[in-house]
Amino acid sequence: MPTPNPNCQASALRIGGLQPLTTLDYPDHLACVVFCQGCAWQCRYCHNPELIPRTPDPGLPWRDVLDLLDRRQGLLQAVVFSGGEATLQPALPAAMRAVRERGFKVGLHTAGIRPGSLNRVLPYCDWVGMDVKALEEDCQLITGVRGSGRANWASLELLLASGVDHECRTTVHWGLFDCQQVQRLGERLAGAGVRRFVVQLARAGRMLDARLGEVGRPAEVEGVWRYLGQLFEGFEVREVA
Q1: What's the rounded Cα separation, in Å, for the pair 164 and 122?
Q2: Are 174 and 67 contacting, i.e. CB atoms less than 8 angstroms apart?
C-alpha cells in the first residue's frame, strides 16, 4: 500500500492567516507563522479572537504555505504553527511532516488544550512555546472553561517529559493576576523543571473581553521580576502587541 502523501493530508488544515517572516516566534530563527483556526477556550485577554471560531471559510490554502516555503528556501529556517489552537486540527501532524520534508524546523505555539492532541504532534516538533495560563486552580478565570487548568498542566508534564526544546510563557493582565500569583506560578514552574520562562504583559486593545481595559502595573512588580530571574536559567518580560 502506498505511503500517504503528507502534503495531500495537510491540505485539510484550516488556516486563518500567514505571517511570512518573524524573528520573534521561534528563538534565534527566521521563521514564518501559520495561524490555525479554532480554539476551545475563551481566554479573556486573547489578542487573536477572530481565530477562536472555525468558520465555514476554509481560509488560506495549504498550497500557499508551500509556495512561500519554496520561494524562501535558504532564508527561512522554521515554520511555527500557532492559533487559535493548532493541535485541535487533525491535519496538523501531516502539515508538520510536510514542513520537515522541505528541510525546515517545526515550531508550535500551544496551550495544550487537549493533552492527547499535543502528545500526537510532539514527535514532529523541534521547539514548543507552551502557554501556561495560570496556576492550575486559577486557569478557569482566564479561559472560561472548567477543567482547563488540569489539561494545561497535564500538557506541560507531557512536554517536559518529551525532551523537546521549549519555553513556557504566561500572559499577564493585571486585572486577572496579582504579584503574589505570578510569583507562586513561577515557583511552581521552576519546581516542575521548567528552565525558560517568559511573562508576556497584555496591553489594552484588541482583546476578547474588552471590559478588562488598561490596568497599571503594581508598584512591587520589579521585585517580582528580579526574584523570578533567580529561579530560571532564562527569564524574560515581553510586551504583547
Answers
A1: 7
A2: no
The answer for 144, left when phi > 0, alpha when psi is -120 to 50, beta otherwise, is left
Q: Is the dihedral of CA 53, 59, 61, 66 positive or negative?
A: negative
* Residue pLDDT, tens place only, 16-34: 999 999 999 999 999 999 9
Residues in the chain: 241
Considering the entire predicted model, what is its pTM?
0.93
Residue 1 confidence (pLDDT) above 60: no
50 and 16 Cβ atoms separated by less than 8 Å: yes
Q: Half-sphere exposure of residue 150, counting CA atoms within 13 Å on the CB side?
A: 4
Average pLDDT over residues 203-230: 88
Are 185 and 215 contacting, i.e. CB atoms less than 8 angstroms apart?
no
Map grid coordinates 514542513 to a residue.
99
Q: Is-contact 118 159, C-beta < 8 A?
A: yes
Say if 1 falls within a structural domain. Answer: no
CA 190, 191, 195, 198 torsion: positive or negative?
negative
**Position of cell 471560531?**
53
In a domain, 68, yes or no: yes
223 is a domain residue: yes
Give the three cell numbers for residue 233: 536559567
Alpha-carbon span 133 to 136, nearest angstrom: 8
- How many other C-beta atoms are found inside a 10 Å radius of the C-beta of residue 11? 17
3-state secondary structure of 235: strand
Instruction: Indicate the number of domains in the chain.
Output: 1
42: cell is: 475563551
Q: Is residue 78 part of a domain?
A: yes
